[in-house]
Amino acid sequence: DNRPSADLAAADSHNAIDRAMSTWDDITCSDLGIFEVPYDGSDTGFIAAIFNPFVDEDLGGSFEYISDVMHGGWLQAAFFDLLTEEGDGSQFILGATFTIVFTDNNGDLIDLDKNGKFDVAWREVYYNDTFEWKDGSRFDVETIALHESGHGLSQAHFGTAFLSGGNEVLHFSPRAVMNAAYSGVQTSILQTDNAGHCSNWSSWPKN
Ligand SMILES: [Zn+2]
User: Cα 81 to chain center, whole Å?
Assistant: First the structure.
């Protein structure tokens, strides 16, 4: 709500992100009880606040905890350029999810509850406004929100990419929301996405 795309009304991107989160919440093997924390006008974005000193634009942000999965909205090219060594990340990164972790006094990752997984504080999702996001443009906002929300809910990438028969169209096998690149509208959960989610969350809150 506070960082909409230049191409989309805040309500439209808000609703697309809501639908994406609901799609994950609807998976029946887990009972996460995902709910939306209403936007209260405060500045959001731990990662935005960290990157702010390194770009000319004002990214806003604050070091406050907002939610376990925080959709931080749309940021400009300068932010995404910082994410690759070559400084060209804005050309190919559609969205990015960051994991904020707990560490010990040495800065090492910790596993206080001894469940074999490092302890995550929360995750933040940002979308790249270098691309065009309006209705009918190349990239579908709900599709990308669904993928980034998958990262927000602990999933990694899945599937192998290949180029088909000379037309240089990217395909994945198996097709999954969690494929590492965009290959068309995908607003429902596929088999491996479901399996990954259930493996992470089916015994929640007992893991
Ligand atoms: Zn991804």
Answer: 17
pLDDT tens digits, 153-192: 999 999 988 887 666 778 889 999 999 999 899 999 999 9
Q: Could you read off the pLDDT of 23-64 as tens digits, one per residue?
A: 999 999 999 999 999 999 999 999 999 999 999 999 999 999
What backbone phi and psi angles, to 5 degrees, belong to 30? -125, 155
Rounded CA-CA distance 177/146 in Å is: 7
Q: Quick check: 94 and 127 in contact, CB under 8 A?
A: yes
Could you tell me the distance, in angstroms and rounded to a whole number, from the CA of residue 105 to the centre of ligand 1? 30
Cα distances (angstroms) measured from residue 18 to each of 11, 14, 150, 171? 10, 6, 13, 27
CA of residue 62 to ligand 1 center, whole Å? 24
Centre of ligand 1 to C-alpha 19, Å, is 18
CATH of domain 10-155: 3.40.390
- Evaluate if residue 72 carries a pLDDT over 80: yes
Tell me the domain boundaries of the chain: 10-155
For residue 204, the CA-to-ligand 1 centroid distance in Å is 23
Q: Are 83 and 94 in contact (CB under 8 A)?
A: no
How many Å lie between the centroid of ligand 1 and the Cα of residue 63?
A: 24
Distance 157 CA to ligand 1 centre (A): 6
DSSP state of 103: B
